[in-house]
Amino acid sequence: MKTGSPLRVCLVFVLVTATSGCFGGGGRSGGGASMGVSVGSGQASVQVGTNPSEAGFDRSVAPGVATSTRIRIPRLFEFELPNGAAVIVAERRALPLVHLELRFGGGAAAQSAGEAGLAGFTAALLDAGTESRTARQIADSLEFLGAEFSAQAGHDEMAVSLTVVKPRFSEALGILADLIRNSSFPGEEVERVRAERLNQIRQESDLPQAVAGETLAEALFGAGHPYGAPPVGTPATLEGFTRDDVERYRDRVIHAGNATFVVVGDVTRDEVESLLGEAFEGWGSGDAPAPASARSPSPAVSTVHLVDRPGSAQSEIRVGRVAVKRDDPAYFDLLVLNTVLGGSFTSRLNSNLREDKGWSYGAGSDLQMRRAPGAFVVGTAVHTPVTADAVREILGELERIAREPVPPAELARAAGYISLRLPERFETRAGLAMELAELRLHHLPLDFFEGFAAGVARVTPESLQSAAQRVLEGGWAIVVVGDRESVEEPLRALGVGEVVIHTSRSPTSSFP
Q1: Using CA atoms, how far apart are residues 231 and 118, in angstroms rounded to an integer?
Q2: pLDDT digits (tens, 9 = 90+) for 243-262
Q3: Number of neighbours of residue 370 by Cβ within 10 angstroms
Q4: Please, are residues 391 and 427 in contact by the beta-carbon 8 Å criterion?
Q5: How many other CB atoms are found less than 10 A from the CB of residue 421?
Q6: Which uninterrupted H or E stretch holds 420?
Q7: Mean pLDDT across the chain, nearest whole number?
Q8: How far apart are the C-alpha atoms of 139 and 128, rounded to whole Å?
Q9: What is the pLDDT of residue 385?
Q10: What is the DSSP letter of 497?
Q11: Cα of 213 vs its chain's centroid, Å
């Protein structure tokens, strides 16, 4: 893309007419006025009238779907600062607000061996003091400006965000630049963050959901891989972190050569270039960290990891395998596949385990697409006596969707669900900024969403089945956190693979 050139992105989506008021007769409103949305000539208007039930509205008929209309993402500009930092600007001028996302590639992937949790540890210390401000002064200054600041680290990147009203944007940007360039990581703040994270580990060790998730990640990727190590770290790594470790990580990751600014709000391209150029003038550059290494595909044979939780009334179940990267060519097929299988309330997994069997309050699936192949994960919690039965049903649904083409009507319903939910991802300045930052992280074009609806519509039963066979066939890591005495023998009787017992496992311990 030519430096500084504008890029206009258009999204096509379908609006649902809200003609039914509240969720049915006798709703919380108790009658009275209701609001509906009508679409005409490409513009939406809000109408206020009487409760539809008072006009003989037939609630047995589902609301209709209006014709397609167009929604425009604000005009986008992409350029680089003199120090090499990438910048994306989206002008959204309706309100005097500005949201800034500053992303650094790496995250957990930039950690060295034995540094589990260092990325998040560093992010938590960015606002803990600089060469000229204490943590208290930083907090007071941001509060005075009405600004919101946050920093966190994920598997593939570190994310720093700032939201502030337009008249205070320049001042808030100056504070942000100070935090990024001059964080001093005071010793007492290092100890405070260490204590907080050790306490977090203790709390999570009592949560079966956390234990199940961490056990599955380690089973799939190994404790030494960025995707397999616990994001918060382990007691051993946290106890060992020093101020020097934090500074070394900062130098590897937080520099102009690894930075992308995404600014959305009441600003112009020229304003952003001038303000960022001034605030970050002379900021050093360097090489961007390499992405996480790819892991071998899951083996052909499944393994059951049973984490004993004596006396547990229910079992947490996770079923997963290594899948694909975010830039996979079959992205849209996999998106629809996940929606059919477990990505919506009417999905097969939820319909089976919750609606039909009544074994669970909810069951779903998640396709974790990252810079390196992530995981495809099915998750639920069930009453202890039906644990093995639930595992069998999950494996059966995974096999069925790979063996049998999805009926056209079911596929169309899933595709419509995806398209109808797309606009909510761009409702706020923060939402738009995060979507643009994700595109840049995965080296996808900024006009990606222009073809999103068409990409979803192109999915066929045949292309979806092909994607399912590639991603879902083979062995699975099956994690059950529950009462061993009650569930071990039924799990062994399934005959799906070796049953490995883990006793008294916390989310941050290593496999025995």
Answers
A1: 8
A2: 999 999 999 999 999 999 99
A3: 23
A4: no
A5: 12
A6: helix 408-421
A7: 88
A8: 9
A9: 98
A10: E
A11: 15
CB-based burial label for 115 (10 Å; 0-12, 13-18, 19+): buried
One-letter amino acid for residue 218 of the chain: E
Structure tokens belonging to residue 290 = 């390499």
Tell me, rounded to whole angstroms, the distance of Cα 438 from its chain centroid: 10
User: Minimal CA–CA distance to 364: which of 355, 372, 71?
Assistant: 355
- Amino acid sitting at position 333: D
The end-to-end CA distance of the chain, in Å, is: 51
Which candidate, 377, 390, 404, places its Cα nearest to that of 469? 404
Which residue type occupies 121? Answer: F
- Nearest alpha-carbon partner for 135 in 199, 100, 176, 185: 185
CB 378 within 8 A of CB 349: yes
Lookup result for tokens 């001034």:
278
**Structural Rg of the chain based on CA atoms:** 25
- List, for residues 353-373, the tens digit of each pLDDT value: 999 999 999 999 999 999 999
Residue type, 88: I
Q: Which residue has the tokens 């919506």?
A: 344
326-332: average pLDDT: 96
The stretch 298-303 carries a mean pLDDT of: 91
Q: For 356, which DSSP code?
A: I
Q: What's the rounded Cα separation, in Å, for the pair 30 and 49?
A: 15
pLDDT, tens digit (0-9, with 9 covering 90-100), for 90-116: 999 999 999 999 999 999 999 988 999
Q: What is the largest CA-CA distance in the chain?
A: 71
Q: Which residues pair with 308 in a beta bridge?
A: 482, 503
Pairing verdict, β 497-503 and 302-308: parallel
364, β-bridge pairs: 379
The structure tokens 């120090």 sit at 83
Q: Phi first, then psi: give them for residue 196, nearest 5 degrees.
A: -60, -40
